[in-house]
Amino acid sequence: MRRICFTLQVRPERLDDYRRRHAAVWPEMLAALRSAGWHDYSLFLRDDGLLVGYFLTEDLSASLDAMEATSVNARWQAEMAPFFADLPGGRPDRGFLVLDEIFHLEES
């Protein structure tokens, strides 16, 4: 499994609404993520809007492509895009910045 960590920037004026939306993610979206190979997925949000995401996957490209093939993902991305500042490509799922892993305790 590959560990993926990514960042995005949530607009500060949208933080409360963003938190509310993620307290009630659509069941269809949760099922799609699981089916697409996203495991142990977490989001962390700082008060200034820095969003850090983390998940495990066998193959990042395949997981992204599997989500791309779902109708629920298109709807979710369209609804989530306005929450973000400086979003390359206009979609959160294709505009996040993947960070390079430089240390992992279990592998040291």
Describe the structure.
- This protein has 108 residues and is of the alpha+beta class.
- It has one domain (2-101): Alpha-Beta Plaits (2-Layer Sandwich), CATH 3.30.70.
- It is built from 5 helices and 5 strands; from the N terminus they run βααββααβαβ.
- Strands 1, 2, 3, 4 and 5 form a 5-stranded antiparallel sheet that branches.
- A hairpin with a 4-residue loop joins strand 2 and strand 3.
- The longest helix is centred in the last third of the chain and has 10 residues, at 71-80.
- It is globular and about 40 Å long.
- The model has no long low-confidence stretch (mean pLDDT 94).
Q: What low-confidence regions span 5 or more consecutive residues with pLDDT below 50? A: none
Number of helices: 5
Order of helices and strands: EHHEEHHEHE
The SS-based structural class is alpha+beta
Mass-distribution shape? globular
Biggest sheet layout: 5 strands, antiparallel
How confident is the prediction overall: mean pLDDT?
A: 94
CATH class: Alpha Beta
InterPro entries: Dimeric_a/b-barrel, Rham/fucose_mutarotase
Organism: Asanoa iriomotensis
Protein name: L-rhamnose mutarotase
Describe this protein with a few key phrases.
single chain; 108 residues; alpha+beta; Alpha-Beta Plaits; five-stranded antiparallel β-sheet; 5 helices; L-rhamnose mutarotase; Dimeric_a/b-barrel
